[in-house]
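re: that chain from earlier
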Amino acid sequence: MRYALHLGLFLLTLLTTTLAGVTLVNNQFLNDLLPFGLLKPPLAQAWAALQPGLWYAVPFLAVLTVHEFGHYFTARYNRIRATLPYFIPLPLGFGTFGAVIRIKDQIYSRREFFDVGLAGPLAGFVVAVGVLVYGFTHLPPLEYLYQIHPGFGAYVAGHAPHDFMVGQPLLFQGLAALLADPALLPHPYELLHYPVLVAGVFSLFFTALNLLPIGQLDGGHIVYGLLGPRRAARVSVVLFVAFIFYAGLGLFSLRSDTDTWLYGAVPYALYLWAVLRRAVPTARRALLLVAAVWLGQVALSSAFVGLEGNPGWLLFGLLLARATGIFHPPAPDERPLSPGRQVLGWLMLLIFALCFAPSPIIIQ
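^ sequence. v structure.
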């Protein structure tokens, strides 16, 4: 029964990511729920409609699967009991909210935290780079875009066919410049129609998300292993506050209308209290931190017209603060890492910087 649950969640996630891939190709990404109506026709017809989506689903799930099994096998190697991956299907957007494993034993050392935390993103990163290499070296001819929307010629003249595009991290841009034929490389507004490339860039995004050096994320495990509990806690708090500060930029300014302040000020103040209260030890310090963050956001947004963060990160900040936690738990064995592991840890933080994009989807 336990294995049936893991397999069932994987197959359901394969279905939702395949449907998400279909919406990519058909220029309908981010449009309401996924097109489950494609499953109603006869089997042969449904299979033909779903096949294009597999070009997104298979490489994307391959990265997520390798990532989670990197954690799993490293935990088992260290004799730490862990569950198989639980995949999380999502009926919209990416088609999945990722995957997780559950550690069933206490982890006793900084080295074990470090090894288990690092193994997943490192393994997934290798596969993600392979996906991008394949995508950039197998670009279709430009006629492919004309089949998707005949008005592509108007776009070439300067009119975008839709108002969103995929954010491109530094590593994606570097591989594109190194490997892709410039004549076939899609414009950022058209990248959504290339499912293998989208799978690759979203894989980089998920890798970077896990490598955020905060709390009990994989990046938090790595920083804890590198720096120890006290310095890792300081780094985590500073980065978490900076993360929330960036996310809320542009929501309020001196130019905001009265309704924005009237209906939004109290909910946003309560949100800042809910997330920042976990960052400091006392309520008084939390109030001061909330005031400093909000005043800083208002000041910057008022001084620089058009300066905006990404409000979508606010939900993730709430999950970090109230669910996973901002601080990393201590281990009984606090011995520092070996030099080789320290080099690998700093390399993973560099990979984080190369894979991170402030917004995976940019809506104009």
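Strands lie at 86-89, 96-100, 164-166, 361-363.
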